[in-house]
Amino acid sequence: MARHAPEHDVDENRLEVGKPKDWAAGLPGVAVSLRRGFEQMGAGRTVRTLRLLNQREGYDCPGCAWPEPRESDGEHRKLAEFCENGAKAVAEEATKRRVGPEFFATHSIADLADKSDYWLGQQGRLTRPMVLRDGATHYEPISWDDAFALTAEKLRGLADANEAIFYTSGRTSNEAAFLYQLLVRSFGTNNLPDCSNMCHESSGAALSASTGIGKGTVSLADIHEADLIVVIGQNPGTNHPRMLSALEQAKAKGAKVIAVNPLPEAGLLRFKNPQNVRGVVGKGSPLADEFCQIRLGGDLALFQAIGNLLLRWEDAAPGTVLDTGFIENSTYDFADYAKQVRALDWAEVDRATGLAREQIAKVAGMIAESKRTVYCWAMGLTQHKHAVPTIQEVANLALLRGMIGKPGAGLCPVRGHSNVQGDRTMGIWEKMPEPFLAALETEFGIPVPREHGLDVVDSIRAMRDGRGKVFFAVGGNFASATPDTELTERALRSCELTVHVSTKLNRSHVVHGRTALILPTLGRTERDVQAGGEQFVTVEDSMSAVHASRGRLTPASEHLLSEVAILCRLARALFGEEHPVPWREFERDYDAIRERIARVVPGCEDYNERVREPDGFVLPNPPRDSREFTGTLTGRAMFGVNELEYPTAGEGRLLLQTLRSHDQYNTTIYGLSDRYRGVEDGRRVVFVNPADLTDLGIADGELVDLVSEWTDGDRRAERFRVVGYPTARGCAAAYFPEANALVPLDSVARTSNTPASKAIVVRLEPA
Ligand SMILES: Nc1nc2c(c(=O)[nH]1)N[C@H]1C(S)=C(S)[C@@H](COP(=O)(O)OP(=O)(O)OC[C@H]3O[C@@H](n4cnc5c(=O)[nH]c(N)nc54)[C@H](O)[C@@H]3O)O[C@H]1N2
Ligand SMILES: Nc1nc2c(c(=O)[nH]1)N[C@H]1C(S)=C(S)[C@@H](COP(=O)(O)OP(=O)(O)OC[C@H]3O[C@@H](n4cnc5c(=O)[nH]c(N)nc54)[C@H](O)[C@@H]3O)O[C@H]1N2
Ligand SMILES: [Mo]
């Protein structure tokens, strides 16, 4: 099963590999943001646009979900409250380049299918609704009304509403997300897969079981107040650069940082803050006090080992290590957890983690001494087969020492997309809980289906098996973001209709169903004017703060509709004008949507008033607010009791993780520079430890095919350049989405069904 690499991906001749950096941001960061801005938008627009980024009167950064400082917490926003990669995200959206009807007339589908994600994204903003008719070679313009009529007709023609699949990516605003799930449920299905299924689903599943709420329990102020921050499976220097300022601020007050990662990521080692002079010209500040270079998937074993030590130290000096009051009063199942962890097999810990026992003891000692610990994590934990138990072990450590629901302490799954958490709050989930569905039914007087819908992996299976026939996406790039590229592309191509509401051209537009539509939409940065006047939208950040976002730029084209308008007009085409949901009014004035959100979504009472507060408001969170765990099975915080497990590769094989370079936003490739890792002008690289290269008899710089081994056979991604790199032994890394072809569809996390994109068994074959 070889995947032919689009021509532009094969960058073998230009690739340059230099020395990896041990620090992040600083002057080059500022320079890169401005350069990318100028290239895409010109100087004037760059300054006008960046000035409003993450400001109260401006728009929320379309990059990551890291929160902004809140005045109500006594914190202040800087004049430039953004990072290099946020500026790149904005430049991508606010670009002056356009993809209009002439573009589609010159480029056939076959032509576009041969281009890389990078090339497709660089062409600019989509300007007109386009249709690819059955059997046609080119997209052609279509009117909005005809596009809605066509979609409605195909949807109505299905034998069963469950044959339609409605995907969401996490940039969608709360208002659009609420309307989208309402439309989908009015239509009669819960098939609402979203990017979260591939992202923090494992965190949601683990935390719901442990603390009773599938979200984190800290605010930005808690990070600033912590005396110990553990950063696990996360590369903040690239993916959440503003988090580095928070770490730096905590460190200035004496906090320690522990990093757990197979890679010595630049941003974890040293940080030069571009927002102050010392950061721009000086050496910057060291970040991680302790760097645990763990093997891929060894984290569960590490946390059990730390738990084992904490228990032993408590035995030796009772009352000094554990928070016994908290354990007795607020938790459940401590005894079973303790029994499991006391019986730990240390030889297994050695094999799983590759860490020295002295280092594990040192780190456990830091945790034992800390009075306020925050645990942060991202994809390095969530995208493993045993992701859910691994994250429960993080929660176990927090519970042992009562590090939840008090200032400066707690659990912090660091979210990806800027509104992925808000979309969930608004009902984008294939298995929303009963109270939400019942409230929706009562509010609108429509029957709401109760049968659980399909998530991402199950949607692909349904399309593959002919059970999924219409695929509709609000945002995202399903074809490139999902696992098992070849299988998924075949699944998408077997659909009767694929529809994408998008800002920019991407691969999902050329991996199309028999008929395909592209519906171009406004981005975050753009002014949204409706019949009722100028509108704003709302979003929720990684720490449950909900606030307004107002675009100020002139839209990329006069033909664009907002996501809200697209959904309202589609709903009218689908349900007619007599529907109990007032779609026309919702499109006219988004306050009308927010009034309904206030009545349906828990914690959103008086939504319209509260999102108009300067900092918005923070959603209720019982574990954080009052140390209550009302959402768990027992009403107490639950210790998770888990077997020790970890992935292994076997003789002559490596464990491969797929990750982001410094110059991309998921499937949107900004450029070909992974500056911090020393890779320039190319992306088809595989990072391998030099000692493993020696063992495998492969030379640094050689060209290899990556062959992934799975029960149903091999998958192959061709022609990757080997880069000798100081990753943990037995582990390798390659970029997402180029390496997605290697992730088997059925290799998923238990419970969360998240593709195991961080532990793929591969062998390297000379190309
Ligand atoms: N600029 C930019 N910002 C982004 C994104 C982007 O693409 N570009 N994407 C956004 C999204 S949607 C998300 S979800 C986040 C992703 O943010 P991250 O999770 O930081 O993203 P990844 O690049 O997948 O990096 C995974 C990190 O975990 C480490 N890791 C991998 N496997 C393991 C493991 O088994 N154990 C441990 N301890 N560590 C491991 C890797 O070495 C790497 O440092 O970023 C968001 N922000
Ligand atoms: N192998 C591997 N696979 C992974 C991952 C991994 O680490 N490894 N990470 C996973 C993760 S964490 C995630 S979150 C998913 C991401 O999956 P997705 O969210 O599906 O992918 P993105 O690349 O973020 O989507 C980019 C597209 O969104 C559209 N877009 C951008 N802004 C807007 C907007 O404002 N409105 C609309 N309607 N469209 C917009 C543009 O057309 C752009 O091309 O990928 C997952 N896939
Ligand atoms: Mo994500």
From TrEMBL:
One Pfam family this sequence matches: Molybdopterin
Residue span, Molybdopterin oxidoreductase domain: 125-503
Positions of the Molybdopterin dinucleotide-binding domain: 654-759
Gene Ontology terms: cellular component: membrane
Alphabetic keyword roster: 4Fe-4S, Iron, Iron-sulfur, Metal-binding, Molybdenum, Oxidoreductase
InterPro entries membership: Asp_de-COase-like_dom_sf (IPR009010), MopB_CT_YdeP (IPR037951), MoPterin_dinucl-bd_dom (IPR006657), Mopterin_OxRdtase (IPR006656), Mopterin_OxRdtse_a_bac (IPR010046), Prok_molybdopt-oxidoreductase (IPR050123), YdeP_MopB (IPR041953)
Protein family (similarity comment): Belongs to the prokaryotic molybdopterin-containing oxidoreductase family.
Annotated protein name in UniProt: FdhF/YdeP family oxidoreductase
Protein's organism: Prauserella flavalba
